[in-house]
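dude i think i finally got it to work??
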Amino acid sequence: MTLCVLDSDHISLILRGHPQVTNRLQALAPAQWAVTVISIQEIFNGWIVNLNDPRYQDRQVELYTRLWQTNQFFQQAQVLNFDLAAQKCYDSSRLTCPNLNKRRLEKDVKIAAIAQVNQAIMATRNQRDFTLVPDLQLDDWTL
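look at this
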């Protein structure tokens, strides 16, 4: 049984009810999929920006409800940590592939490192960035 790690983009699609991505997730047993602590950071950083944006003050109930739903989703998930093995994999990837040293790729490369040390497949639409990581298996659930 191969573990599937959901990228932040696929998590967002699930939270918005994307039928194809949601169906793929529901077809898996809980032990077959996971999220990373990095994706949790990315998702919650987005919520903090939205909740503090004065343009959205009239949508607070909706936003807090969606934040609550996000929290409920993460409570069901297996959460993989950015541990010492992932750090070593991350450092190695950046040394062997200098094009991964771009600031915009930092979190994606960390997510990829977590997937690699867990011998997992990465579920993502972000082929542009994740294909830069050598030996990372990708699966786009939207196709």
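The chain has a mean pLDDT of 96.
im so relieved honestly
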